[in-house]
Design goal:
The protein is of the alpha+beta class. Helices cover about 55% and strands about 20% of the residues. Among the domains are: about 170 residues, GAF domain (Beta-Lactamase); about 100 residues, Beta-Lactamase (2-Layer Sandwich). α2 runs antiparallel to α3 and α3 packs antiparallel against α7.
Length: about 400
């Protein structure tokens, strides 16, 4: 500003040209200042545009990072939900629920990997050779249309040479099937598989099976994140499968035991005499239909009740059948409603020889007693007749003898 005033004083206040005919310096300076301001403004605009573009790039990168981390969180949530649902099913100990959870878990893996088919295979020995057996399978709608059903549920590892050794060392398979060895390619091509991922599963370092993920429409490679997430839930899946197998075996044994119990129960129900079973403390655990008829109650209503509920004259007395059995007397009698009953008792023991209960068999012996009494009466009468007959015979013989002449006569 000071320089401008100085220049203005030199050239005159009206801004006219100097004596030499040149334009006053203050006018040139004004033009230069205007030009400088224009250039500066353009530079500022360019700088602002650059800053704006840089901000947009940073925003885009930030959005990409947020999207990536959100995806990771969603994947981890998927993995965690699978593990939690499987753990809950295993704690519940219900075979059917475990299998439903396993199928749902394979569906989650299929949707997460956008695959067409997910299978869980478990190792087992068959005929001395190690086989891999399919236990669970999930198919997408596209997979159901395009995938060819696997003809067998069990294969020997010898049918896919090299797999047992490779998977047992923890090696994964992840590639289009065109990258597989010729014999492997032929094996999977029959199933219309385009891409394949196989993740081995271990329990305490023992190779127990694998998860197989297929794409039947696109030839591709599954991402490492996908394989790592599948591997992280794999142990839970194979644990659940093994538990399901164990529960299945237990359920089979239980059904067999139930069938056997029903069979023996039917036999006892077919016997027309009352038979009851108690535990060692004399509480009913079984009665046949003859007992139901005798006491007029359904068996379900008396199970768990004390046997004295029957209310006979010997219940809670020294002559109770089980009380007698404890004294090594295996038979007792009682009367009820004008009838006589015989009770035979046997002790029940387990495989260790420990007392676990008693079996009581009741028989209506009323007619036997009547017949016995008649027999006794008839026997007494016969004895009297016999005695009378013998006595009469003796008297007749004596009379006869008296009528005979004596030798001395």
């Amino acid at each position: 500003m000071l320089n401008w005033l100085r220049q203005k004083l030199k050239t005159g206040s009206n801004g006219e040209r100097t004596k030499s005919g040149q334009t006053p310096a203050w006018r040139d300076e004004k033009k230069n200042n205007k030009k400088n301001r224009t250039v500066k403004n353009k530079k500022n605009n360019l700088s602002e545009m650059h800053d704006s573009l840089q901000d947009k790039t940073e925003i885009s990168e930030t959005e990409s990072l947020i999207k990536e981390y959100t995806g990771r969180i969603e994947r981890k949530n998927t993995v965690l939900s699978i593990v939690l649902s499987i753990s809950a099913a295993m704690i519940d100990g219900n075979e059917e629920k475990i299998n439903r959870t396993l199928n749902k878990s394979l569906e989650c893996i299929g949707e997460y990997t956008k695959a067409d088919r997910v299978q869980l295979w478990q190792n087992e020995m068959i005929g001395g050779n190690l086989h891999f057996t399919r236990t669970h399978e999930w198919l997408s709608k596209q997979g159901a249309l395009n995938a060819v059903a696997i003809p067998s549920s069990s294969y020997a590892y010898d049918e896919v040479p090299g797999w047992e050794n490779k998977l047992n060392r923890g090696k994964q398979i992840n590639c289009p099937i065109t990258d597989l060895l010729p014999h492997e390619h032929e094996f999977f091509d029959r199933q219309k598989t385009k891409a394949l991922a196989v993740i081995p599963l271990f329990v305490s370092s023992d190779f127990k099976g694998f998860i197989r993920v297929d794409d039947c429409t696109v030839s591709r490679i599954f991402t490492e994140d996908m394989l790592e997430d599948i591997k992280s839930v794999g142990q839970s899946l194979i644990f659940a499968t093994m538990l399901s197998d164990s529960l299945g075996a237990v359920n089979i044994k239980r059904r067999q035991a139930d069938e056997l119990a029903h069979w023996y129960g039917s036999i006892l129900d077919a016997i027309p005499i009352p038979i009851s079973v108690t535990d060692a403390d004399m509480y009913w655990t079984f009665v046949n239909t003859a007992v139901e008829s005798l006491i007029g109650r359904k068996r379900e209503s008396i199970y768990g009740k004390h046997c004295s509920t029957m209310g006979t004259e010997i219940c809670n007395t020294h002559d109770c059948g089980i009380a007698c059995a404890k004294r090594y007397v295996d038979r007792t009698f009682f009367n009820s409603a004008g009838k006589s009953y015989q009770v035979d008792v046997s002790k029940l023991t387990n495989l260790s020889g420990e007392l676990v209960g008693y079996v009581e068999v009741m028989q209506d012996v009323t007619m036997l007693w009547i017949q016995r009494d008649l027999a006794i009466q008839n026997g007494e009468h016969a004895e009297n007749v016999k005695s009378e007959f013998l006595h009469g015979k003796s008297k007749r013989k004596k009379a006869y003898d008296e009528q005979q002449p004596h030798p001395d006569d």
